[in-house]
């Protein structure tokens, strides 16, 4: 034994020494190769920057010249003459696909002849063009906007914008040019690089999650929607600038203030190492970037490694064979212990430790993706509680046996613990997979015969998909667990994880947290949308809650009202909405000596409060508001949820002279018999019907039927979402009483409503 130890000591000593020398040699050779490649990236980046800067500078000069021509003698007011100027410039510049001139409000007032835009096109109303247009209004330089697809010319373009100013420096408009992004005669077409190198130009932003590509020559990804309309991963941006800080001692602002070209390494979206050359153009606020996989370094290094490794391997092959012989005998002894460590003692199925240990190897055989199934037995706890854990354990063993029989050796079956199991299964055709899940549920749900007793258990399955949903097994398990809880709501079913589940959970938590202090911070305010009678006179306004939060931005009432109902915040929120609306409208009515109706939406949660009637009457009396000018709106689907409880409250409200409106009528399940019981004065026709009234006969007939129902029940009818004169004409022809929508006015703040009413009084 001592002799064997000495032999192995010599073996390990020689092996470690040679391995150290071998590793040191490889380390030196690798860094020699790497440094040479990194140096070349500075050269390539400089070429890209010079080429792009040359093009942008040239186009900047062109826009300046065109702007002066259009301003001279106010030529821009002459559409035909202006088009000739723009068309002439377009013929001379092969990189541009079109021109357009917008006024300072963003309205397109002029384009080159080849561009046909919809009427009332406005750059400020387009999320993609809005920010760069605002930037152009403030800048003396040309502004490069986000890449976008222009339907009118069927091409992806980079918008170039430059404000044109009169002699006093006042902005007259913004001249826009469409730089050809792809195809013949496109941006940087003539630039020749090796096929694996990616050239990317990125629009700078103060927000780390708003870095967008302007140009990407990646021929392997023709999904331009993804390339240009999706921001670059915040993780990649943060990782890049952190790398720059560590390796080059430069902050992002420091990098913006210098013309330096830096080269660094980073992991891309696929978690692959890449080399990046980067520089910044301060004038146009652009990042120029050239990127390639580190594989070119590794491939060259592997060639060197192959020669050195051959020598190394041949030198130690005899030592390895001897070691393998000895280790084999030791392995047999350890296998039994390893099995116990990696398997569940009850079912003998692999456990989580086994799964984590083998997931990488298993996934190599399923490179096209796989499903992670999180399985939970429905009502298993009842078996344990009623018949004891021994019977419960026997049921689990039988479940494990059925799982083994159902799945193949290529699929990993894991016991998570308790009555939960995990299955890893390669991706299949969706129809086949859905059938497979139903068969599994049916198999596990069959009767179990244990100790002369019969048992049945259900099965809930949550499924996540690699790599669509997540990249790591921890994330996939978490997402599958989330989906499983959705499936458990239905019992004996399966559910795929969707991004909506995660987003909803996070958003709800954020909304609840911020909503608790929203009123105190004065983030909530009321908007009012006018309601117009068929004769054109003012009927009233609908009060609409608005919330602008520093963290969440604008949060729609469809998001925060539901959260308020679920978390007990509806009382406080409802009091703010009702009190603010009554006070502000009362103030306007008094100031203008104008009497009109106020509609306020009421949640069913508020209606169900025991003191709601006294509560609403107290708020009305506090503001001395005329009850006959108040309408409370209830949603159709909610108002019939518990008719026996809601109906007495609604009748009592009406007895006090307050009118009731049934909102979103037609989208729920109201029957005529139920409608007859409700003390409703007004039916509101949902916007979804109005949208289709001009081209869908069935929707038109439905709207006419709703109006007729209102007439038959002596109820007024109000059409929501009216946006065109044609819709108004159809609705008037059907004898609709009241109209509400953007055709008449958008929702207005208090001050804007006051001005609106003064103007239209």
From TrEMBL:
UniProt cross-references to InterPro entries, sorted A to Z: Cyclic-di-GMP_PDE-like, EAL_dom, EAL_sf, GGDEF_dom, Nucleotide_cyclase, Rev_trsase/Diguanyl_cyclase
Ranges annotated as spanning the membrane: 7-28, 301-323
Record keywords: Membrane, Transmembrane, Transmembrane helix
Coiled coil (UniProt feature): none
Residue span(s) of domain EAL: 508-761
Keyword Ribonucleoprotein applies: no
Residue span(s) of domain GGDEF: 368-499
GO molecular function (one): cyclic-guanylate-specific phosphodiesterase activity
Protein name, UniProt field: EAL domain-containing protein
Annotated organism of origin: Candidatus Sulfurimonas baltica
């Amino acid at each position: 034994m001592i002799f064997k130890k000495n032999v192995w000591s010599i073996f390990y000593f020689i092996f470690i020494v040679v391995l150290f020398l071998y590793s040191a040699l490889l380390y030196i050779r690798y860094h020699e190769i790497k440094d040479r490649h990194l140096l070349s990236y500075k050269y390539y980046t400089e070429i890209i920057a010079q080429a792009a800067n040359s093009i942008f500078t040239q186009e900047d000069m062109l826009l300046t010249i065109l702007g002066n021509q259009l301003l001279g003698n106010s030529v821009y007011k002459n559409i035909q003459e202006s088009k000739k100027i723009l068309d002439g410039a377009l013929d001379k510049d092969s990189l541009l696909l079109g021109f357009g001139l917008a006024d300072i409000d963003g309205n397109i007032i002029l384009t080159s002849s080849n561009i046909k835009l919809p009427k009332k096109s406005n750059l400020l109303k387009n999320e993609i063009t809005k920010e760069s247009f605002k930037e152009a209004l403030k800048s003396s330089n040309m502004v490069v906007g986000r890449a976008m697809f222009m339907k009118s010319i069927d091409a992806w373009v980079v918008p170039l914008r430059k404000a044109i100013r009169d002699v006093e420096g006042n902005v007259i408009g913004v001249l826009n040019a469409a730089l050809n992004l792809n195809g013949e005669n496109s941006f940087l077409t003539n630039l020749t690089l090796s096929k694996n190198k990616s050239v990317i130009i990125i629009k700078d932003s103060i927000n780390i999650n708003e870095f967008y590509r302007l140009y990407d020559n990646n021929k392997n990804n023709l999904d331009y929607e993804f390339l240009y309309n999706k921001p670059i991963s915040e993780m990649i941006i943060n990782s890049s600038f952190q790398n720059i800080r560590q390796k080059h001692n430069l902050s992002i602002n420091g990098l913006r203030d210098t013309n330096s070209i830096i080269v660094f390494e980073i992991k891309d979206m696929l978690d692959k190492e890449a080399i990046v050359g980067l520089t910044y153009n301060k004038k146009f606020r652009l990042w120029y970037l050239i990127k390639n996989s580190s594989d070119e370094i590794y491939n060259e290094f592997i060639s060197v490694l192959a020669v050195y490794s051959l020598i190394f391997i041949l030198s130690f092959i005899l030592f390895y064979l001897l070691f393998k012989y000895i280790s084999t005998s030791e392995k047999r002894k350890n296998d039994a212990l390893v099995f116990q460590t990696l398997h569940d003692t009850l079912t003998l199925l692999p456990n989580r430790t086994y799964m984590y240990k083998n997931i990488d190897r298993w996934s190599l055989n399923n490179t096209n993706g796989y499903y992670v199934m999180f399985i939970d037995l429905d009502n298993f706890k009842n078996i344990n509680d009623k018949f004891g854990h021994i019977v419960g354990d026997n049921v689990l063993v039988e479940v494990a046996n059925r799982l083994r029989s159902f799945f193949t050796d290529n699929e990993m079956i894991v016991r998570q613990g308790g009555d939960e199991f995990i299955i890893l299964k390669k991706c299949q055709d969706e129809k086949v997979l859905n059938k497979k899940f139903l068969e599994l549920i049916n198999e596990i749900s069959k009767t179990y015969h244990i100790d002369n007793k019969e048992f049945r258990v259900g099965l809930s399955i949550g499924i996540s998909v690699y790599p669509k949903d997540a990249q790591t097994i921890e994330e996939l398990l978490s997402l599958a667990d989330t989906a499983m809880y959705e499936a458990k709501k239905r019992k004996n079913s399966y559910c795929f994880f969707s991004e909506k589940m995660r987003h909803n959970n996070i958003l709800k938590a954020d909304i609840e947290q911020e909503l608790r202090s929203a009123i105190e911070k004065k983030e909530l305010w009321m908007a009012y949308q006018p309601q117009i009678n068929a004769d054109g006179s003012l009927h009233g306004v609908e009060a609409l809650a608005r919330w602008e939060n520093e963290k969440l931005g604008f949060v729609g009432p469809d998001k925060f009202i539901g959260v308020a109902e679920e978390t007990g915040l509806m009382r406080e929120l409802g009091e703010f909405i009702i009190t603010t609306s009554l006070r502000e409208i009362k103030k306007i009515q008094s100031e203008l000596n104008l009497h009109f109706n106020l509609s306020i939406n009421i949640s069913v949660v508020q209606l169900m409060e025991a003191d709601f009637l006294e509560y609403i009457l107290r708020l009305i009396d506090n503001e001395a508001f005329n009850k006959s000018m108040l309408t409370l709106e209830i949603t159709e689907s909610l108002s019939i949820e518990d008719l026996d409880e809601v109906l007495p409250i609604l009748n009592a409200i009406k007895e006090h002279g307050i009118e009731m409106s049934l909102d979103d009528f037609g989208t729920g399940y109201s029957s005529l018999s139920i409608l007859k019981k409700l003390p409703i004065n007004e039916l509101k026709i949902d916007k979804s019907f109005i949208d289709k009234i001009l081209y869908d006969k069935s929707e038109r007939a439905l709207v006419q039927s709703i109006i007729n129902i209102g007439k038959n029940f002596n109820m007024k009818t109000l059409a929501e979402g009216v946006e065109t004169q044609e819709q108004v004409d159809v609705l008037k022809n059907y004898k609709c009483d009241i109209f509400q929508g953007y055709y008449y006015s958008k929702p207005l703040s208090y001050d804007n409503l006051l001005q609106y009413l003064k103007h239209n009084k």
